[in-house]
Amino acid sequence: MESAELIRRLYESIGEACVTSPDIAHVEIHGNRVVGRHLVPGLKVEAEEAEDGVSAHIRVTRGTQIAEPVRICFGILPEQGIQRVRIRTDLEEGARAAVMASCTFPNAVDVLHEMEAETNIGPGAEYVYLERHVHSPAGGLRVVPHARIDLAEGARFRTDFELLKGRVGQMEIRYRATVAAGAVLEMSARVSGRGDDRIAIEEQADLVGERARAVLTTNIAVREKARAEVKNVLRAKAAYARGHIDCKEIVREQGYAEAIPVVEVEHPQAHVTHEAAIGSVDAKQLETLMARGLDEEAATDLIIEGLLSPTHPSST
Amino acid sequence: MSSDSILELQEIILELGGRRILDCLSMAFWPGHVHAVVGPNGAGKSTLASMIMGLGDYRAHGGDVRFEDRSIKELSIDQRARLGIALAWQEPARYEGLTVRRFVGAGAADATEAALRRRLEQVALDPDRYLDRAVDRTLSGGERKRIELASILAQEPRLVMMDEPDSGIDVEALGRIFDAIRLLREEGVTVLLITHSQTVLEQADHAFLICCGRMVAKGSVAKIKEFYGERCLPCDHQNAPREDCNGER
C-alpha cells in the first residue's frame, strides 16, 4: 500500500484527518516502516527500519520551544503483525515540546506492539507526552510499553496514557523515572478493561534531588472477567522531595483489581503520600445520579466515564 | 388519606441497626407549597428524606409512602426520580472527571446547550465558567450545592427535598439557594426543606417538628418556631420526646 494511503488510513482509524499544517511536526510509523515525516526547526528525528519495527532518535535542540504538539502515529492496520519500537527522546536544556502519540491497531486479532523508550529531559526542559490508543473490538492485541525517563534539574515531564476505543487485550505498562532536584513528574494512566482483558501497570519514580516532586495517578475500570494489577512505587531520597500516589479502580461483575502502592522515604524531610480505592462505584455518587432518574447501569457508566476522562484534574 | 396531598407518609416505621429511627410517622405535603421538617440532631430528618427517595438501607419497614396517590414504597430510586421526586444532599457527591455539563445534563428533561446554560444561570453560576469544569474537589461546597440544584431544576421534578440547604455554605450562596426555592415555588413544585436552621425554616409555608422519629408538632412556621424555641431548645430529653410532646403522633 502506498505511504499516503497508509497515513490516511492510520489517521482515519483514530477518527482524525491527516496533518497538513506546515507548523505541525508529525511522524507516522506503520509496522516497521516510517511512512511519513515532517519536521519543524529544532526538532531532529532519525529513524531506522528494522525487520520487526523501527528505532528512532528524537531530539529537541537546546532552548527550542515547539509551539504546536508534535503528532506521532504508530500502528498496524492488518489483523496480524508485530511492531517493536525503540525510541530515544532527548530534550536538551531549556527545550519545550509536547507530543500527541496515537497508537492504532483497529483490526488487531493477533498483534504485538512493544515500545522500549528512553527519555532524557534536560535541565529546565519541559516535555508532555500524551499517548492515546485505539484497539480492535476483539482485543487480540498485546501492548507492552516500557519507558525509562530521566529528569534533570528543574525539568518537567507529564505523561498520560489513555485507551480511547476498543478492548485492551493484554497490556503491560512499565515506566520508571528518576527525578532530579526541583524537577516535576506527573504520570497518569486511564484504562477500562472488559472480557478477558489483562492490564498490568507498574510505575516507579525515584525522587533523588532536593524538592523533586512526582504524582502517579492510575484510574482503572474492569468488568466481565477483566483483571487489572497496578503497582505504583515512589521513593523519596532527598530533602523536601514530595510525592503522591493516587490509584482508583472500579470493579464490576467478575472483574478483578489489585493495587500495590509502595512508598519509601529515605530522608527525614521528604514526604510521600498514597491513596488507593478499589471496589464498586461509590454508593453516594451512584444514588445521586439514580435520584436524577438514571438506572443503575447508566449511572455507573457515567461515573466511570468521569473517572477515565482526560478532564480529571490530575491529568490536565 | 388526604386527596389534596402530593406526598403522604402513612405510619412509617424505619429501623437501622436494630434502632427505630422513624416511629409511626404520618405526614402529608401539599402540592406547590414549601414545607419544612425541623427537629434536633438525631431526630430522623435526613432519614426521612432518604426514605422518601428510597436510598440504600432507608427502606420503610412498616407503613406506606404514597406519591400522587400511588404507593412508591417498593420502587427503586430511579423509578421514584422518574415520577418527579428529587433530593439535594446535605453534602453533594463529588465526581472526578465528570463535567458540570454531563452531570446537569444526566437527568435533564431538556439537555440542550441552551437549557443547561439556563439552569446554571438560575442558580447564579456563569455557564462559561462552570459547564466544562469537573464536579470534583476543585469546587467549593457552595458551588457544588448550586450545581446540584441546577441538576435538580433541569430534572423538572414535582417534589424537591433539600437536606440542610444551608450546610457548609456562605451567606451569598445561601441567598442564591433561597432564590431557587422561590423559583421552584413559582413553578408549582412542592419543596421539602430538612433543617434545624431558623433562617431556612422561614422560607417555608408550613412546618413539621419531629423528635426521635416521632411527630411532635405541625402547623405554621410561626407556631413551630415558638414550639421549638420554648420546648426543644431547653429540652434535655435525648432519647425520646417528653410525654407532653407526643400530641401530634
Topology:
The complex is a heterodimer of chains A (316) and B (249).
Chain A: H1 3-13, E1 26-30, E2 33-38, E3 43-49, E4 53-60, E5 70-75, E6 80-91, E7 96-105, E8 110-121, E9 126-135, E10 141-151, E11 156-165, E12 170-179, E13 184-193, E14 198-207, E15 213-222, E16 227-236, E17 242-251, E18 256-265, E19 271-279, H2 283-290, H3 296-307
Parallel strand pairs in A: 1-5, 4-6, 5-7, 6-8, 7-9, 8-10, 9-11, 10-12, 11-13, 12-14, 13-15, 14-16, 15-17, 16-18, 17-19
Antiparallel strand pairs in A: 1-2, 3-4
Chain B: E1 7-16, E2 19-29, E3 34-38, H1 45-53, E4 62-67, E5 70-71, H2 77-83, E6 85-88, H3 100-106, H4 113-122, H5 127-130, H6 141-155, E7 159-163, H7 171-186, E8 190-195, H8 198-201, E9 206-211, E10 214-219, H9 221-232
Helix pairs in contact in B: 3-6, 4-6, 6-7
Structural class of the secondary structure composition of chain B?
A: alpha/beta
Task: Give helix % range of chain B.
Answer: 25-40%
Distance between the termini of chain B: 16 Å
Whole-number total of structural domains of chain A: 1
Oligomeric state of the chains present here? heterodimer
The termini of chain A sit apart by 38 Å
Can you give the mean pLDDT of chain A?
94
The residue-averaged pLDDT of chain B reads 91
SSE pattern of chain B, N- to C-terminal: EEEHEEHEHHHHEHEHEEH
Radius of gyration of chain B: 18 Å
Alpha plus pi helix count of chain A: 3
For the structure shown, list the relevant keywords:
heterodimer; A: mainly beta; nine-stranded mixed beta sheet; 3 helices; 10% helix; globular; disordered C terminus; B: 249 residues; alpha/beta; 10 strands
Task: Tell me what you see in this structure.
- The complex is a heterodimer of chains A (316) and B (249).
- Chain A is mainly beta and 316 residues long.
- Chain A has one domain (3-281).
- Chain A is built from three helices and 19 strands.
- In chain A, the strands form two sheets. Chain A has a ten-stranded mixed sheet, with helices on one face.
- In chain A, a hairpin with a 2-residue loop joins β1 and β2 (33-38).
- Chain A is globular, with a radius of gyration of 20 Å.
- Chain A starts with a helix and ends in a 9-residue tail after the last helix.
- In chain A, 48% of the residues are buried.
- The model of chain A is unreliable at 312-316 (pLDDT under 50).
- Chain B is an alpha/beta fold and 249 residues long.
- Chain B has nine helices and ten strands.
- Chain B has helices spanning 45-53, 77-83, 100-106, 113-122, 127-130, 141-155, 171-186, 198-201, 221-232, and strands spanning 7-16, 19-29, 34-38, 62-67, 70-71, 85-88, 159-163, 190-195, 206-211, 214-219.
- In chain B, the strands form two sheets. A six-stranded mixed sheet of chain B has the order 6-7-8-3-9-10, with helices on both faces.
- In chain B, α4 (113-122) packs across α6 (141-155).
- Chain B is globular.
- The model of chain B has no long low-confidence stretch (mean pLDDT 91).
- Chain A binds chain B through residues 219, 248, 282-285, 287-296, 299, 302-303, 305-313, and chain B through 53, 55-56, 76-78, 80-82, 85-87, 89, 92-99, 102, 106-107, 132, 134, 136-138, 148, 151-152, 155.
